[in-house]
Predict the 3D structure of the following.
Amino acid sequence: MNNEQSHSATPLRLIDRDLYLNGSEQPIRLRPLETRLLTTLLRYSNQTVSRATLMREVWQTDFLDDTRTLDVHIHWLRQKIEEDPNRPRRLVTIKGVGYCLVLDGQRRKGNR
């Protein structure tokens, strides 16, 4: 199965579990949950996605008492997609709400 997701305004391509950045021909292999997380963030690109939405769509749960697993997976994903994971520009935290995958340099208003 070849499931490709890309965005024309950014050099980011996801094919199955292989992530291609900046036009590179060398893929970065993602873990299954990283792939589901990135796929969800791509679906809502440039929009704030709430922690509840990510937990529901990626982990199929409404349990929000402990979302540390989400933070850990965001950290791992940043290690793979950010030039400087300590100063994220693509996968940004929206304090008190969730995360936003910024693909075209601008974040849209609105939450998911």
